[in-house]
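Example 3.2
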Amino acid sequence: MAQTLYVAREPDASGFIDYTADEHAVWNTLITRQMEIIEGRACQEYLDGIEQLGLPLDRIPQLGEINKVLGATTGWQVERVPALIPFQRFFELLASKRFPVATFIRSAEELDYLQEPDIFHEIFGHCPLLTNPWFAEFTHTYGKLGLSASKEQRVYLARLYWMTIEFGLVDTPQGRKIYGGGILSSPKEALYSLSSAPEHQPFDALEAMRTPYRIDILQPLYFVLPDLKRLFDLAQQDIMALVGQGMQLGLHAPKFPPKTKSHAA
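Structure, written as tokens:
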């Protein structure tokens, strides 16, 4: 795993994290820009979550503020973590309805793209939908499955997560919308994902698990849910049986060029 240059901020004894004026300014730039971009593009369930969280525009929210809302809606909480955490820890947290949030924010020089997830990506990209019972149930189930999965199985689960929670799209009566946090927190991807440039496929969990991805490019393919409740329905299925099938069938050929040495992190 690539090393991060960022260090998660430590809270004081009362749990308060004291961010600098520059860090609050970065948050303000990111959230005001992204709120404009996702207008008419994000799914309604996400927008409802944004409204419930009441995210401040002028400052980075404290985790306690987020926890109050998540606790009241779906029983979830966010938990402060270092910038990068191992798979095992990630699954442990999700299995206990805690969503990992790295408490640092990207620098002004890296506004548009950051490989590691910062507090803006986690809070703005993911937390609004954690107020939604369907999304929350799927995320919880995913954590429990990952916790007891083997290393090989986890790789297939990781692709399912990538194609849904991070980079998923959904069809709605108002048209195709975004629900994946990786898209919602990215200005470029939010525009690109709904354009005619990438491929769009109806969501199929087995296909999603067999589809390779790269984290450092715009996605060549997005899976589209028929509605958000499909995630809840998937949580009731035998996902590990699908993982087994995926492992037998193997991966599809990648729809992107291999990473060249000069681009390697």
